[in-house]
Amino acid sequence: MLDAVETSRDQAGPAPRRQSVAVSVGGVVIGGGHPVVVQSMTNTDTADIDATVAQVSALARSGSEIVRITVDRDEAAAAVPRIRDRLERIGVNVPLIGDFHYIGHKLLADHPACAEALAKYRINPGNVGFKGKRDTQFSQIIDIALKHDKPVRIGVNWGSLDQELLTRLMDDNAASDAPLSAAAVMREAIIQSGLLSAERAEELGMGRDKIILSAKVSQVQDLIAVYADLARRCDYALHLGLTEAGMGSKGIVASAASMGILLQQGIGDTIRVSLTPEPGGDRTREVQVAQELLQTMGFRAFIPIVAACPGCGRTTSTVFQELARDIQESIRVSMPQWREKYPGVEALNVAVMGCIVNGPGESKHADIGISLPGTGEVPAAPVFIDGKKVATLRGEGIADAFKEMVADYIETRFGPGASARRSAS
To answer: Which domains does the chain have, with CATH numbers?
Structure first.
């Protein structure tokens, strides 16, 4: 029994990644064991080229590896090649995904330059066509994707679910000797909609390495159940997302709770956090949250982590909070340049602690950390680098002095010649 317990203790971490077929989207590989990809979506009118270029650029520079744009009418489709060209001229080469509903077949056929400029097409099987037109219009999109050698995401959403399929499954369930709940039938309809559409795409000649599936709902437990079942029934690459997650902390918590569980189970090849921005809010927030989710779970490293204590009665001063905020903001602003100048800097850990209880210990565990004095403590702040105390800061300039030490540490560890210095030591 003890051996089993010890083995369990030694295996902290996620389940092995589900084996999925790799799909290349404009050079970004999704699935097949590759790192989970962060993506986002604009909320601009795509026909407004200036606004769309600005927002795509902001999303890409904040770390979105794929950006989806709405293509809902002729003006939007005509704008796509110009958007692609403008982005490339300013050095933004992020793949663009076209989000199509209702008339995607027509827009792609009428605007071949749009079809070529996009890196992937999103198809919603719930509104690609109705009754007799469904198969024809779906087939048209697949044919165009094959012609331009583009992958597709078959994106099912329970808000626009195929009603014919749902009605048929509900009727079959009602006639069953052991009927399921309406919610269970709904989940099965979502899964079948995606799988049947993918099967049809394959029949039309599309390879499994060109198909990504998503099955989005807005309730956490439903999302977990749908994706767990879908993952067992196919090996397509899976796009995770909680649709209509909501605003602020509610949307963040719901997205992290649902996708965090699935990722821990080894499910998910790309994610999008569908936050509703606050009025006038920053659209890039959804990218930041997605990155933080993956980084805090240990799947990827995007930006140096700043650990800081939450504060208590020992920390009536706000100095440590202000310093942690300033360093975090400085890191985020600097990262676009640091990625080029300091390879590996995203794995850096910084600690800014507020009192003597946990401060020194946490600071020792970080690459570089400071333990600021709490209420009634000696006004001195020990600094630790790579687990060793290297200095004690005092006076009014503690914050500025520590910022300089962080900058020096980054230059020494990650800057030009860092590898040679490590080898020499």
So the answer is: 23-171+179-297 (3.20.20.20), 305-415 (3.30.413.10)
